UniProtKB/TrEMBL annotation:
InterPro entries: Glutathione-S-Trfase_C_sf, Glutathione_S-Trfase, Glutathione_S-Trfase_N, Thioredoxin-like_sf
Pfam families from the UniProt entry: GST_C_2, GST_N_2
Taxonomic placement: Eukaryota, Fungi, Dikarya, Ascomycota, Pezizomycotina
GO molecular function, one term: maleylacetoacetate isomerase activity
Organism field: Hypocrea atroviridis (strain ATCC 20476 / IMI 206040)
Annotated protein name in UniProt: GST N-terminal domain-containing protein
SUPFAM superfamilies the UniProt entry points to: GST C-terminal domain-like, Thioredoxin-like
Superkingdom, natural source: Eukaryota
Coiled-coil stretches: none
Length: 240
């Protein structure tokens, strides 16, 4: 069984990051098709409709049947049919992991709104909105619960699963905006960010072309950019 995974810019696409990180972390073979977001949304939609019925990413194509799975959580469940390691083996841990992934899939609007994903920038956040602080508090509670119940080092036990992949973009957003979680939750978030699959995504996002002005502006929103890692890497390469 072979898969083709269509993704958007690694710099920006949190939805694409989740199944990509999971496939990499579990060594599940797949072909990557990177399709850049465009400056014109109508043209982007036309381009994305060529491979995704929803005109959105990610979209997984099962090469054996040409089936298109065009939702990140549905992609995870589809892969789990062939690769049970996507979810924890323990029944209670598996239920918790599914709950955590579903909560991320449909919730955390505060951090999505205030902290757009941009792996290449470090931005001074400024005052936190009430919605953002509620999300930070909930993330801390959720991570503490998972580590406390199942012993870590990952959210639902010893093995990296879909639950961790679903929170990988949160680890990236927190790095971008300087958000730190307390205690065990913070240590888990650091481990997640340092996972090789997450680091590969971030590194490739920092160096990829295809910067989109409208998405950059949404990330910054007039806030102070403390560092542009893409520019820094170029300076380091040139020895400047």
């Amino acid at each position: 069984m072979t898969y083709t995974l269509y993704i958007g810019n690694k710099r920006y696409s949190s939805w694409s990051m989740r199944p990509w990180v999971l496939l990499k972390a579990l060594n599940i073979p797949f072909d990557e098709k990177l399709v850049f977001f465009g400056s014109d949304l109508a043209s982007q939609r036309t381009e994305f409709l060529r491979f995704s019925p929803s005109a959105k990413v990610p979209c997984l194509i099962d090469d054996s049947s040409s089936a298109a799975i065009f939702d990140s959580l549905a992609i995870i469940e589809y892969i789990a049919e062939a690769y049970p390691a996507v979810w924890p083996r323990d029944k209670l841990a598996r239920a918790f992991a599914r709950c955590a992934a579903a909560e991320m899939h449909s919730g955390f609007g505060g951090i999505r709104t205030d902290c757009s994903m941009n792996v290449a920038l470090r931005i001074q956040l400024g005052p936190r909105s009430e919605a953002l602080q509620r999300d930070i508090d909930r993330l801390t509670e959720l991570f503490d619960e998972g580590i406390g119940k199942f012993g870590g080092p990952w959210l639902a036990g010893k093995e990296f699963t879909a639950a961790d992949a679903f929170y990988a973009p949160i680890a990236s957003r927190c790095k971008t905006f300087g958000i730190e979680l307390d205690g065990e939750a913070g240590r888990y978030l650091d481990r997640l960010f340092d996972h090789p699959a997450v680091q590969q995504w971030v590194d490739e996002g920092i160096t990829e072309p295809g910067i989109v002005a409208r998405i950059e502006a949404d990330s910054i929103r007039g806030r102070k950019v403390l560092k542009n890692l893409g520019e820094q890497m170029m300076l380091d390469f040139l020895g400047l």
